[in-house]
Amino acid sequence: MTELIQNREDFLKNLTEKLGIERQPVESHPFEPMNQLPHETLSGKTQDELLQVAKERVKKIHTNIVETKQADLEGIINELIGKWGNGKVLLPTDNRFKEVGLNQFDANDYANHSVDFDRAFWQKGADYREENIQTASEANVAVAFAEFLLAESGSIVVETHAGQGRSLHFLPTHYISIVPKSKIVPRSTQAADFYHEKRAKGETLGSAIHFISGPSNSGDIEMQLVVGLHGPIEVVYVVVEDL
Amino acid sequence: MGLKTSEKPLLERLKDSEKDVFMQKAVAKAQDAQWEKREGARDELGNWEQWRELGEQIRQHTIAYLPDYLEQFSDNVAKQGGKVFFAQTAQEAQDYVKRLIIEKQIKKVVKSKSMVTTEVDIDPMLLDLEGVNVMETDLAEFILQMDDWDEPSHIVFPSIHKNREQIRQVFEKKLGYKGDNEPVNLARCAREVMRKFFLEADMGITGCNFAVADSGIINLDTNEGNADLTISVPKTQVVLMGMERIVPTMKEAEVLDNLLARSAVGQTLTTYVTFAGKKAEDESDGPEDFHVVILDNGRSNALGTAFQSVLQCIRCGSCLNVCPVYRHIGGHGYGSIYPGPIGAVLSPVLGGYKQFGELPYASSLCGACTETCPVKIPLHELLIEHRRVMTNELGMQHGFDDFQMKVIGKGTSTPWMFKSAMTFAHAGSAPLSKKKNISVENMYDYGGYIDKGPGMVKGWTDVRDLPRPPKGSENFRSWYKNRQKAGDK
Are residues B121 and B268 in the same domain? Predict the structure, then answer.
């Protein structure tokens, strides 16, 4: 298994013969959508209107939206964690905590701020694989920033980076997403566009991008909805008005 | 199991389905519930027809340039250090995964739901490997595994044929579960069992909703969170994808994710819409070793033929959910892992007419499938096309059916034979006909009804009564002639 790509030529030759075409670079046939519905849907709304759309949507996906000002953010989050019984709280190593005044969650400063729960940070680097996954599986709560909130589907968007792994969003039992109000967009179209453009500009993307709409669920047993399966059992979005 | 799920002939499978009253009720309930949710979600979005056209355009474009997009995709996976294996057959795909497991001395494999892994028979192969444990992590498939690998019966709801009590009994027997049959408690038990296994797993196997060509990443749409754990915890990930499941960029994937969620389960988006590949150097979880197996296994038979559009399918299952035939016979009745209208079109393309030639006839051609398809596959037209190919091009014999069709063909094309048949039909059918009251189901009474017909007529009389043919003097042609004569006077 040394070659990275195996059996490609014969495989593709068969396809081109059946299709009766020659292979050509993809640039020679860019996809031009026949309509602009993805961009037109929910367009032209203000942030307040989009927040309203999101608030309606999350009722259907068993998720709460809590609105707050930056000054009250810490209190709101601590209250939520307390309601869920404190315990271990997993945090990404993320400078934004400091920027929004959540110094209790800043990896360099947290020790100076006492709280009622245990804090653990997602450690940067491949060497911490087992440790990070283990911590995430033991965590009662995870708190992380959303890159976007998609109003139409009530989804938050998260992207991995060294300080924030994939399983941080899936292994803990409860999950709090901090959403700056300015980051509410109409729908998944805008998030896909953002990452598409980021890639086109040659910027590095995290290896995983997740659109998450509330807690995990399943209708596999007699189609009766069960909230909370593999992923978190409860999810809250905290929308910060002045961010 | 592979593509074919049963060795029994179609009629025998139908008899089995007929007996399974719980299955029929469950499927009917699912169809009705999904109808409401699906149509509601589509109405809410608005402009559904235009969305379908966009979906169709994306899929047609990608299939038309499939070799180019597969080349771009595989290049991009390799650029990140991932590996791509192009498998012509199911056996090649299976062998690749097997070699990988042996080479890497894998002990625990977690799987998230994927039709393709079933198609290439990954599970029996894994079970045969000594020292390797495997776990299906989609709740429905976990239930099927616990029930000694019962076969799936629906693309989206694989365990739809089981009720909560049957599941409780399975959990009690296999997992020592002591609780009641409430779905939430059964699900919590499954969560606990699977979570433990997840944390020890060293390989994850997933399917692929869409592969994104320009970035070499995989798009997965799920609700339970098991696929996301499968791509996060194990160090090795294998993706099995049908070669057609590809899109140019994330932008087109996003459109299809929307069509898929609304069509499959009536959601705006599935709970988890994930785009991911091999982990980056500085990240700590996600696959260090990332493999994509791209499978043909008969799909290329459709290219350049009338069946090319079947490759547009995004596996939403909505054609199953509107199909009156599926409603009655359920997934197992089809004898293919791809049941329903899409299965009746796709299975003969993948597995040939010898195995699946009966399926295009398991349809009333009502066209509901074509109408609901979010990417506008002309499903019922393709069913007719299969029938045409089998009879006209391949001249396939169908025993007594063919004999009868020949007699009917000869009879109807020869005027004197046709006339004498019309005269004979009434008299000849007398021994078969019973006197019955006229009802909504039987509006025309020419002296009784046939409820047990011979040969091809049996297909009709098994489900409803056939009015006895009228006397020669009372049939439409005679009646019209007499009216004309009366008018002349």
Answer: yes
Give the CATH number, domain containing residue A201: 3.40.50.10420
Q: What share of chain A is helix, strand, coil (3-state, %, to 5)?
A: 35, 25, 40
Are the beta carbons of B271 and A208 separated by less than 8 Å? no
Contact A81, A51 (CB under 8 A): no
Does the CB of A198 have a partner CB in chain B at under 8 Å?
no
User: How many helices (H) does chain B have, and how many strands (E)?
Assistant: 22, 13
Q: Is B382 a domain residue?
A: no
Q: Any idea what DSSP says for residue B120?
A: T
Nearest to A210 among B100, B190, B274 (CB): B274
- Residue A120 · residue A91 · CB < 8 Å: yes
Are B334 and B359 in contact, with CB atoms under 8 Å apart? yes
Low-confidence ranges of chain A (pLDDT < 70): 1-2
Q: What is the pLDDT of residue B399?
A: 46
E strand or H helix at A155, and its extent? Answer: strand A155-159
Count of domains in chain B? 2
Nearest to A211 among B225, B273, B277 (CB): B273
For strand B217-222 and strand B210-212, is the pairing parallel, antiparallel, or unpaired? Answer: antiparallel
Domain that holds residue B482: 421-488
For residue B265, is it within any domain? yes
Q: Is the pLDDT of residue B418 over 60?
A: no
HSE at residue A96, side-chain half, CA atoms within 13 A, is 16
Query: Contact A38/B254 with Cβ under 8 angstroms?
Result: yes
User: So what's the pLDDT on residue B436?
Assistant: 60
User: Could you tell me the residue range of the domain that residue A121 belongs to?
Assistant: 46-240
Rounded Cα–Cα distance for residues B470 and B483 (Å)? 17
pLDDT at B371: 96
B-facing residues of A in 210-239 (CB < 8 A) are 210-224, 226-232
DSSP labels, B428-473: HTGGGEE----BTTB---SS-EESS--TTHHHHHTTS-EEPPPPGG
Question: Which chain A residue shows the shortest CA-CA distance from B51?
Answer: A37
Cβ contacts (< 8 Å) between B50 and chain A: which residues? 35, 37
In whole angstroms, give the CA distance from residue A69 to residue B246: 43
| pLDDT attached to residue B23 | 81
Q: Which residues of B touch A161 (CB under 8 A)?
A: 283
Contacts of B83 (CB under 8 A, 6+ apart): A1, A3, A4, A5, A6, B77, B289, B290, B291, B292
Residue B110: inside a domain: yes
On chain A, the residues whose CB falls within 8 A of the CB of B140 are: 218, 220
Look at residue B13 in the predicted model and tell me its pLDDT. 87
Q: pLDDT tens, B135-185? A: 999 999 999 999 998 877 777 778 888 889 999 999 999 999 999 999 999
Do the interacting molecules here have an ipTM over 0.95? yes
Q: Are B24 and B332 in contact (CB under 8 A)?
A: no
Is residue B470 within 8 Å of residue B426, measured between CB atoms? yes
B275 in the same domain as B126: yes
**DSSP assignment, residue B307?**
T
Among the residues of B155-287, which ranges form H helices? 164-175, 183-200, 226-230, 250-265
**A4 assigned to some structural domain:** no
> Would an 8 Å CB–CB cutoff place A132 in contact with chain B?
yes
State the burial class of residue B419 (Cβ atoms within 10 Å of its Cβ: 0-12, 13-18, 19+): middle
